[in-house]
Amino acid sequence: NTFPVNVHTGVTEWTSWFNIDHPGGNGDYERLEAIRFYYRERVCARPTAMEVRTTDWVSAADTGEVVHSSLDKGFWCVNKEQPHGRVCSNYHVRFQCPPVQSYWSDWSEWGPCSTSMCNDVGIQTRHRKCLSSQPMPLLLVPACQGHHTDRRECSTPPCTAKWRPWGPWGACSVSCGGGRRVRRRTCVKNSPTIQCTGRPADPCPVKCQMSCSEGHPNEDCSRCVCDGHVLHGEVHSVTGVPVSGAWVALSNQPKVILARSNNKGHFKVPGVCSSSSTLVSIRKEKFAPVTVSATSNTTGRSWVKAVLKTAEKPYIVKHPEDKVRYEGGRVLLCCKATGSPMPDKYYWYHNGTLLDRKVYKYEEDLVLRDLKPEQSGHYYCKTSSSAGSIKSSPALLTVIAKGSPACNSTPEPHLIRMPVDCVQPGTDSTFYNAGRCPHNTCAGALDYDLRCRDGAGFCCAVQTMETRTIDCGSYKLPIKAVTQCSCQKCVEPTVLVRGRVSSADNNEPLRFGYIYIGKERVGTTGFQGDFTLQITSDTQRLVVNFVDPTEKFIDTPKVFIFDKKGGSIYHDVRVMRKQEPIDLNAGESNTINLGEIKGEDPIGQLVIPANSFHKDNGEVYEGTVKASVTFIDPRNITTAAATPGDLNFVSDDGDMLPLRTYGMFSVDFRDESNRDILGAGGVQVLLDTQHVKMQEHIPKMKLWSLNPETGVWEEEGDFSYATTTSGRNKREERTFLIGNMEIRERRLFNLDVPENRRCYVKVRAYMSDKFLQSEQLEGVVISLINLEPKPGFSSNPRAWGRFDSVITGPNGACLPAFCDARTPDAYTAYVTAMMGGEELEAAPSSPKMNPNVIGVSQPYLNKLNYQRTDHDDPALKKTAFKINLAKPNQNNFDETNGPIYPYQSMLACENAPFDANHFRFFRVEKDKYEYNVVPFEESDLTTWTGDYLSWWPNPQEFRACYIKVRINGQKEVMVRSRNFGGTHRATAGRLYGIRDIRSTRDMREANTSAACLEFKCSGMLFDQAAVDRSLITVLPQANCRRTVTNSLLQEYLIKHPPTAPNNETHGFTMLAPVDPLGHNYGIYTVTDQNPKVAKEIAIGRCFDGTSDGYSREMKADAGIALTFHCPERKLNRESLFQRLQTNPGQTLAQMARDMREMEGVQVQRSRVVAYPSEQQGRTPSRRVTSTTRRRMNIRQGQR
C-alpha cells in the first residue's frame, strides 16, 4: 500500500505527557515551574500551545470541571471551586514548542595560558554555546554557524629569582663563652635555570641584635616578650562546643607548645606584648589546624578566639579521564581534591609506579609531551594532607603508534538472530553477520589537546552501511549491514539514576523529600517517593543524600552505582523511620539501649554523662532533652537495604577498603520545645562482645562516622575493654568494648571492623533460562548481602555485615564479598538481581541440584551449598540465592575456575571466559523476538546509528509504543507486528523491524490470553525534519479471526487520515497514531531517556490496562485495542502413528494392500482425473488415501 507523503516543515513534536501532581488535597496543580524542576530541558523556554487531558483521556474542556491554564504558569484545578462537592480529576499536560531558533551565547572570559613555564608562549581559549529555543536541537547537523572555541597566543612573565626575608637567628653554637648564631633565607624562583645572587646563610655575633619597641628579646632572640602581659584565648568547635587539649604555639615556632586549652576551651600565654601583632597556631588531633591573629589594647592584655573545624580526609572531586592520543602528541591529566585541611601534596603514578616529580614537574595536573606508545597505560593521582591520603580512579591513556589506524575500518563480526520462521537456504542458519564497529575510543581531531576534559570525544563508529536482502525461504528480509568504520564524534548518552525512596518497615514513600549531591539540592522526591537524577559524564562516584523535611525518617546518604554507557539504573532506596523521642534529664546520667529485638539482648548502649548537653553557642543546656536514637540492627536482615553509604573507608595509603558492620545509629537531641538541635560531649558507646561471633574482630573494632557529602566512613576512635555486671543477673559479668565520642552534628555512627578476608563472586544475567551467551543482559543491578553465621559457623545466618551492588556489563559482574579459606561456611551471602524495578529469577536448586543449570561444576558446588530461596518452601519467591563464601583453594584445580575469586584476582574475575563457573539470573518472560533493520543494542546507547530506518530515531529520548491484543482461545498465540514506513518520503514502504511476542494467559479468565505487542511509534525521524506515520500490521501466528476493534481507536484513525485499508480479518493494519492515546484506545506510549525503562513502564501499564498503573499479571479484560478469536484446529482423521497404536494388525494389512494398488496407479499417471463439481476451485490434496485409490480403480474397471 502507498500513502501520500505528509511533510511538516518548521513544526516540532509535542512533548511527552507530564503528570506531577495528584488531585488529593487542594486539587491538581500541573505547574510549569514544577515540571521544569523535575524534567529540566524537556520543556522549552516558551511553549506555544498546551493540551490537557485526564488520565482517562478526556479533554479538560469536556469534564465539566472549573479549570485554569496559562502558558506561563501551566494548569491547575482547585477542589473547592468544583460544583456539587466534586473533586478534580487527575490531569496530565503536554506542550508544543516553536520551530528551532539557534543562536550563539556570548563569549566566555579568556581561559588561563596553556603553559606555566616562565618566559614561554602558549595558547588561551574562550568558548561559547549554541543555544536553542527548542529542548532538542537538530541532531548530527551543526545548529549554529561558526566555531564553539576561539584561541589566541599568550606569554608568561620573564624568569625571576628573589630572596625571601631572613629567618630568625638560630641558637648559639656554644653553651658558654663566645659562639655564633646563624640565620637563613630561601631563594624563590620560577625556573630552575636561574639562581639568586648572594648567600643563603648569614652568621652574626653572639650578642642578640633584635630591637624591641616594647619589652625585650627572649633568650633565643626569636621574639619580643613583655613581662606582666598575658595572651588570653578560647577554642571552640564549629558548633560552639569548647575544645579541650588544643595545642597553642606561635606560627613561626609551631613545634614549641606554649599552652593547652582547658575543659572550657580557655588558655593563657604569658609574656606576649600588647603592641605587637602575633600569629597564633592552634591544633588538635581530628581537627584541622588553624592560624589566627591576636588583638590587643593598652591594658596589657591580648586575646584570640579560634574555631576548629573537624578534620576531613582528602576526597577527590576531579578524577583524571580516559584519553586517546597519537604518537608525538601531548596530553593533560587533571586531579583535584578537597578536605579539611586542604590537601597540599599530589603524586602521580603510571601503572602503579610513582612518576619522578623532578622529571615531569607536576602538581595537581600532569602534562605529558612528545608521547610514545610505551606511555600507554593507567594513570592515577594520590593526594595527602595531615588528615590522610586518597587515590583517584585510574584513567586509561592510549597512545596510537605512527602508521597505526585510530579505528580499524573493517567491521568485526556481529551475529543478528533472525525470526523463527526465517531459515536461510543452504545454511539452515537462523543468524546473519551484520557486522559492527569495535567499542573503543579514538584520537580524532581536537581543537585543543591540553584540557582536563577533551572538548569532544571520538569513537570508532559506523561510516557506511549497505542494504542487503536476507533470503528466508518463503520471504525476503532487508537488513542494514556495516561495511566501513571510522573515527567519529561519540554519541553522548544520557546517564540517569532512577528509583523510589520508602521506609524499611512498611514501605511508606518519602514524599517530597529533599535530594542533595554534596551541598547542592538537586531535586525532590515525588508523591510516591520516586526520583530521577541526570548524571554528568565526568562523575566517578555518586553520593546522594535524602533528607526528609518532615523529619519522620533519618537523613540517608547513598552511594549509587550507574551505567556510564547511558541509560537508567533503578534503585529501590530504603530509609529508617526515626524513633519516637524519649525525655531525658540533662542534669543526670542517661543510658540508651542500641538494638532492641524481642528475646535478644541489646547490641550496645549509649551512656551520656550529666550536664553533657550543650547549645549551638556552647552554653550548657539544662532541662528536658528530647532524644531520638535510631539503630540499624544487623540482626534484622530487612534493614540491610537501608544501609547508609557503601560501608567503605579510606586507608592511610589512600585505598578504599571495606568495613564489616556490627550496627549503625543516628542520634537526634532536641531541647524541650523539640526545635533547637543540641550537641553532647563525652558520650560513651558500649558494645557487648557477646554479639561479636568472630573473636578476631574484637581487637580491631572501631567507632566510625559517615561523611554525608562523600559517603565515606571516617574513624572516630578506638574501643577499650571493660567488665561490668549485668542488670538482669547481678552475678553475670559481661565484657564490653567502650568508645568515647562527641556528638557535634547530625551524622550516622557505626560500630565496624576492617575485614581483609575478601573475594569476588562472578554473576551473569540472561534474557531467558536458556542461558545463551548471546542473550546476556547488561545494566542489571546485582546486590550481595554478607551474612554472619551463628556460633559454630553454621550456615544459618544470624546477622548481615555488608551490602554491595554492581552493574552487569558485557561479561557479567564481579561482586566484592567477605570469604574464608579454612571454614567454608564462616561467611554466607544472599544475592539478588534487579532490572528496571523488576526482580530476576535465580537458577533453581530443587528438586535436584543441576550444575549445568546453576553454572557451577561439582564438587565445588557442594562446598558452596547453593540454595535458591524456594529450596525448602516452593511458596517463597524465586528471586535470590544463598551460598557459602568458601575462598578457593589455589592448589585444588576444581576451585580455580570461579565462581569465587581471591581478592587479588579481580582481573581474572572480570575477564573470565563465558564457560568459566558463574552464578546465573534470568528474566521470566514469554517467548519474544525483536528484529531491527538497523541493528542497535539497547544496553549500550553508544551503538546507535543515525539512519532513516533506525527504530529509535533519537539517541537522547526514546519513545516506546505498545498495542494490547486479546486472544480468545485455548492456547497462547505468538503475535507479530510488521513495521513499515508510511508517510515519509525516505521510508515509505520500507521495513523498520519486526516484533514477536507470545500472549500471556489471564489467570482469572478461562481460554483467554493477551499480548502487549511493541510497534514502531510515529513521529520525527533522526533528522528531526519531518514526521513519519509508521504503517503497522498486527498478525497473530495462528488460525485467528479479528472479531472486535476498539471503537475509539477506529474513530481516531478515521479522523486522522490517511487511513490504512483493513479488509483482512486475520490481521489488522493501521497508520500508527502520532498522539500517545492511552488505555481507552488500547495504545500505551511512554517516553524516557532509556529505551529499556520506557519499554518496561509501557509493558507494566499494558498488562494492567491503565495509563498510569503497573502490573506483571496480565489483565485481558482491560485496555484492549484488538480482539482475535483463535480456535484450536480439529483433526479430521487419525494419523498413521495413531492408527498403528490403536490397531497395528489391521493398519499394516491395509498398508500392504495400498502398496499393491499403488503399483497399478503409477502405470496410468498420464490420465486426467475430473473432479466433481463441488470440488472445482479447490486445491487438491497432496495425500491420496486408500479409499480414493480404490474408487479410482473401480471407475477405471467400469470404463
UniProtKB/TrEMBL annotation:
**Domain Ig-like residue range list:** 314-398
Q: Where in the cell is it found?
A: Secreted, Extracellular space, Extracellular matrix
Instruction: Name the residue ranges with Low complexity bias.
Output: 1178-1187
Q: Which Pfam families does its entry note?
A: CILP, CILP_5th, CILP_8th, CILP_C, Ig_3, Mucin2_WxxW, TSP_1
Q: Which intervals of the chain are annotated as region Disordered?
A: 1171-1199
Q: Which SUPFAM superfamilies match?
A: Carboxypeptidase regulatory domain-like, Immunoglobulin, TSP-1 type 1 repeat
Major place of localization?
A: secreted
UniProt keyword terms in alphabetical order: Cleavage on pair of basic residues, Disulfide bond, Extracellular matrix, Glycoprotein, Immunoglobulin domain, Secreted, Signal
Query: Would you say which domain of life the source belongs to?
Result: Eukaryota
**Keyword Phosphoprotein on this protein?**
no
Nucleotidyltransferase as a keyword of this entry, yes or no, is no
Q: Which SMART domains does the record associate with it? A: IG (SM00409), IGc2 (SM00408), TSP1 (SM00209)
One GO term describing the cellular component: extracellular space
Here the segments flagged for biased composition (Basic residues) are: 1188-1199
Q: What is this protein called?
A: Ig-like domain-containing protein
